[in-house]
Every structure is written in structure tokens, then in C-alpha cells.
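Dear support,

I submitted the protein below through the web form. The confirmation email said the job was done, but the results page showed an empty box. After a refresh the structure appeared. I'm attaching both so you can tell me whether what I see now is the final result or a partial one.
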Amino acid sequence: DFSAGSLVSACSSDTDAVDGQQQLVESGSPLFSAIMRSGFVSHLVGCYEATGAKLSQEEVNLWNAFVRADVGLRGSLRVPSEAANQVLQELPLPDDRRQWCMEELRERAFEGEVDFVDILDIFHEERSSSSREWSFRASLQNAV
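What the results page shows now:
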């Protein structure tokens, strides 16, 4: 009887196991590949869900857009790019403010790429800026 569990335990106990695991990798064993992919997918889904659980609904919308745009699963997006534009489309902003956000991302980019934290920072900066603007407008209206 041969199961995935017996393969994993057989491949993780000692130096012979390391050699056996290397042979499985080199041979392109479909069973071993499936086990490795399954673990990788589970890890990715767990990270995705854990991140989303810590965010507000607006932030979750950005997170979902970021994950959809990151087709290479690199955890980053080129700036400027259509993918980054798609993420910024989730921000309920006029086009000129969205353009400002793209410029801010471009300034933050490391080797032409930004990660989700950069986008989240820009989102919060924009929220803070908008909040101050609305507060100023309300103060003017109350003074008149």
C-alpha cells in the first residue's frame, strides 16, 4: 500500500531520504509534484485569507485587485503598468487623484516594482488627504 503520507515520511527521515527526495524531484514524479503543488497552494490560500482577515472592506477590495493583478505570483507589480492601474481602479477616486496615486507608487518603487503594502500606504495617504479636505470644506461652510 503506497500513500502520499508514506512518501513524505519516507522522504524526510535521514540522508538517504534527502537523496530519495532529490531523485523524486529529478525524475519528475507526478505524485511528488502533486504533493508539492498541494502544499504550495494551501500555503498561498492561507496567506491570502490571513491577510484579508486583517483588512477593512475597502482594503480587502484593494487586496483582491492586487492578487488578481499579480498573475506571476511575485507579490509585487511593475509600476507603471496596466496591472497597477487595475488595482488603482478599485480606489473610489477621480482620474486626476488616481494619477497622483500612480506617481506616488512610482516614487516608492524599488527596481520598478511595488508590493501591496506600498499600495495600502498610498490608499491611507489619499484617505487622510481627502479627510482633511472635507474637514476644511465643512469648516468653511460653518463659518459662512
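Response: this is the final, complete result; the empty box was a page-load delay. The longest helix spans residues 116-143.
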